[in-house]
Amino acid sequence: MMDFLASICCWPIYDDVNDTPTETTPLMTPRDLPTYGYQTIAADEFRVLVLHPARSFSDDIVVHLQTRKRSDDKFYEAISYSWGTNEESEPVLVQDEEFASLHLHNQNVTTRLLRYYQTRNQANATLHVRSNVVTLLRYLRYQWFPRYLWLDALCINQSDKSEKGDQVNQMGDIYRKSGRTLIWLGSSRTFPRPLSAMERVVRSRKTKPWRESDQSKLERGNDSPEVQLEETLSQGQDFRHILKLPWFQRRWVIQEVALSPRPRVVFGHDTMSFEDMTYLIDQLGIRRDKQRDHPRVADALHTLESMTSLQRRNSFRGSSLFTQIKHDLFLRYYHQHPKSSGPADFIQILVSMHAAQCSDDRDRIFALNSLGGRPTTVDYQDSVEEVYSRFATEECTYSLETLFCCGAFPSQCLPSWVPDWRSPRQWIPIKSFEKRPPSHQLLSENPRQHNQPRHRPIIIESRIMVINAIPYTVVATRGPRLCGTWREQPWRSIEKFHRFFACITDSTSSCTRAHSLDQLMKTLTAGGVLSGTNLENWLRSDEQSHNFMEAQPAPAIACCDAHNVSFCEYPRKHLNVFNILQRIERVMEGRCAFVTQRGDWGIGPSSMLSGDYVVALPGCQYPLVLRPSLIGVQGTYKIVGDCYITPFEGYEQLSTHQSARAISIV
Description:
It holds the Pfam family HET. By secondary structure, the protein is of the alpha+beta class.
């Protein structure tokens, strides 16, 4: 109880006089002490770092490690931070666990506090950790009370692969059962308290319309420092440096925040809740689609959106009425984040978070492992290829819709049915857009369909997958992709797609132009927009894309019937037009148009060729494009990728008049 009260009532009361990152200013005196030797712990145990108090910011860091059972409910705080690229290390003084238990624990409060200072010089070992870890420990250290933390760099024996695997397996529970998670963003002399500054700017913008008139600003002068500062801050320029911090690019932090009951952001001596920070960033209007020249900022905004959605999902699992009301108060920001309490689809998370980085490629799966409903086994003694192959086998046994990711994450050294999560994403699987209207920017949370026992694949020697499939059609003609001038001339690009489809199918179809425009929009948006109403007028217009692709129009008009259904009437500048064009851009990334031998319209991987086969798989809503393998064995194929065809009957309906056959995928 004392530990919990200390975490609420206390915060480090001393400041670093220079407020300079200690990564570049080592403060510790080297000691001639041996390296700390970790004691072996059981699979159901974990270590907690006890950070000893100090009177001065520059005092040596003194800690000891405490072993706990997973079933223990004692208070501790988990740390979420970025390891960073700086390899320089500094020593941390470590006291023996038995010595600490004898002299510091099981004592009354007064005796314990006195002995923390009396035993500071009795450390008998050191651990060398990265300089940024020493920095965060200095900022988080209390002056009078010990602090109980979970920090992977010190609480896990990083040199023991077996222990590391066991601890990563239970990392989800460690963050979930923590009192709260402290998100360490770093410290900086240039921006000493950026979180507080961000809050002040948002508040000033909300009070600005009635606080100061345009006439008073004009009298004060447009070139005054106050006006320039207001304009700069109102555009969010000074806060992009926060989103460029390494923490926002790190893969591990996603599950650390998503599973935490109370995440709190710490930037030097500045602090606020994670919910408040994400809300304030949204209020600043730093839009993801406007950060094409700042990819790190765009990736950070997407990471925040995804973490918010996942954290909201987990926080509603057994949450109180007060928590639900608090979330609903932020309706403007959280309207895209459903109050679902079920586990998120793990494959969808991997697709969405492809840009998040980690130093070990095995962690591209392990770092998000606790977010799925069926965590895979964490074993750092396996190679990257073995981890990916085992994971693909498990997921394909669960659902064949996992194969939709294969072409999107291609590999030169793995079978084509194994997604290589190290590879840059070539396109977004069609499944990710399922049941998602054009106005929603996050990827779909619609789970994959389970395999029936008779449809589960057979894996031969970890290289060949045998599945049942129904041959549907063959790719007849490969069409255009989105050209480089899409954002400048979207209507010309859409007309180009329409001419391609119409030219190929005119000889076999007598559909009207209105019907063909409906089919065009359904194809280019992967079923997101079913009607091409009013598109004809837009195609004939001279409107340039900067009205929609560069400068988002005003919010959608509530009375407009076209919202998320079709284009609004020309020339009304409506948000719905922007949403549809943006969806086409995202769906068609890395894809091209094509026509099948049956005359169907479709979109598929840009690497597809005429003669590729389109097959239907059991339990899969969308077809898969296959290419005969070059090994010379009949019935052996490689996966090209998923595709969208309109119309597509689906495996269940096709199986009523066509027979499935076994095919081998290598």
